[in-house]
Every structure is written in C-alpha cells, then in structure tokens.
Write a structure and sequence with these properties.
The structure is a single chain. This protein is mostly helical and 265 residues long. α5 packs across α6, α6 runs antiparallel to α7 and α6 runs parallel beside α8. The chain is globular, with a radius of gyration of 29 Å. The model has no long low-confidence stretch (mean pLDDT 74).
Length: 265
Amino acid sequence: MVGGVTAVVAAMVMTTRVSVKVALAWSTCAQMGIMLVQCGLGLWELALLHLVGHSLYKAHAFLRAGSTVAATSRQRLVGHGPAARPVDVAAGVLLGAGVTGAVAAGWSALSWTTPLGAGGWVFLGATALGAANLAMGMVRRRQPWWSGRLLVLPVASLLLHEGAVRVAPHGEPAPAALVVLVAALVAALFAAQVVATLAPAAPAVVSARRWLFRGLFLDEAFTRAVFALWPPPSPAPRPSVLPAPASIAVTAAAQPDRSAPLLSH
C-alpha cells in the first residue's frame, strides 16, 4: 500500500516538473515505490529489472538534458499538434491492449517461457497501458500504428522479464487482494493521465496540477516533522568585523569637536 501510493503520487508530481533534475528526483521516488510493490508481490526479478532500467533511463535523461532548450524551441515553432480527442484515447487503449494481449498470448504458448503469475499479469497490464499511451500519441499525430513500434514495448518487457527470472529468485505469490489493489492504483494513474490529456484547462485539473507542482507540500511537512524531532544545531556566533562599542566611544572622545567654532588668536 505504501509503495503503491508513493509510486502514484511521485509519478503524478513528476509530470508537472520542468527541471530535468527535479523531475528525475521524483521519478526516482516513483521507481522506489514501484520496486517496493514488486517486492511485496514476490516479483523480485521485476524489482531487479526496474533497478537496472531506471538507471539507464536516468543516464539517458542526463545525457540529453543539454538538448532540452533546442527541443523546446523546436516545439514552439511546430506546435504541439492536434489536441487529443476521446476517440484518440479509445483507439489508443484498444490498440495498446490488443497488441499487448496478442503478444502475451503468443508468449504463453511458447514452451520455454516462465509463467507470469498474478503479479506478473498486473505489470503486463501496466505495460499495456504504456503501449496505449504510445498508441494515443501515434493516433493523435496521424502516424501509422501498424509500423511495428507498438510491438517493441510488450516484446521487450517480456524478454527482459524472462531474463530477470533466470537471474533473480521468485518469491511467494501475493494475496489476491493485494494484486487487485495494485491493479486499481495502476488504472487510477492511467485514468488521471487521460483526464489531464483530454481536459487540460478544466478547473479541477488546473487545481490538481498546481498542488502537484508544489509536491503536495510534502517536503515542507516532512522538514517540519524532522526538525521537531531533531532540531538543527544553532549556528555558531560569527566574529564581528566592527570595533567594539567601548573602543568607538574612546575614539570619539579623543577626536576634537569639529562642529565648534574656531577661536581666533
């Protein structure tokens, strides 16, 4: 539960950040939440896979951070493309789910593959939502969805999962209630993304984006809680660069009063 809520909140906050460094920090929080969920479901091989995959993602994001300004300028020139429509979302979901389901069915028919289990099917569903997100962008930009790009994500996910299973041990299967809870959190995250895509100017979306941009004020709350338990040490007194008041008074008394009129001799 803790890992799932952490993953959802951090992922939603990450989408509102404009700084690459801050976005990657929230992305790391989301990935740690996902890894905690995977360990709770007994999917240790997927936790190992996410650890390696997120490291590669962060390295790629840092290396291409220098081209962000050029990419932003280019996007301002060409625009964001046509706005998303409900039919684009529906087509993307159907395409992503259909392609992922077909790949999973063919994968399960192979004799040398490892069964996914309930938890594995949940994260395969998350892969289907990722493919649906890719398909929505392709449909909105009028790109040919039959070009084979949609096959890359589910096939790569299953291949990496199969390789991770052979390296890391597999834990005990998780309870059905926990699997359903994780599936509901993944679906809620995708639904929030769809709503934000279809109605970005809606008052509820604007208000939610404002709160998420501030990180739900979690940083401030945790900082105050930590300082209440462990107050920070008081700063050491800094040496004064000005002379002491007594020396100022002595110096002033020793100087002649220039405001008095000069006596004529």
